[in-house]
Amino acid sequence: MRGLKAGAALGCAVLFSVIGAGAANAGPIQNFDSGWYQNNGFTAGVANINVGSSNLSGAIYNNYLAFSLANLANQNITSATLTFYGGNGVNTSSTSETLGLFDYKGSINALLSDQFSTSVFTDLGNGNSYGTATVAPGAISQFTITLSAAAIADLNIAAHSQDTRFVIGGSLQSVSGPFANEQLFAIFGPQTALSPAAELNLVTSPVPEPSTWAMMILGFGAVGAVCRRKRTGATLRFA
Question: What is the pTM of this model?
Answer without folding.
Answer: 0.80
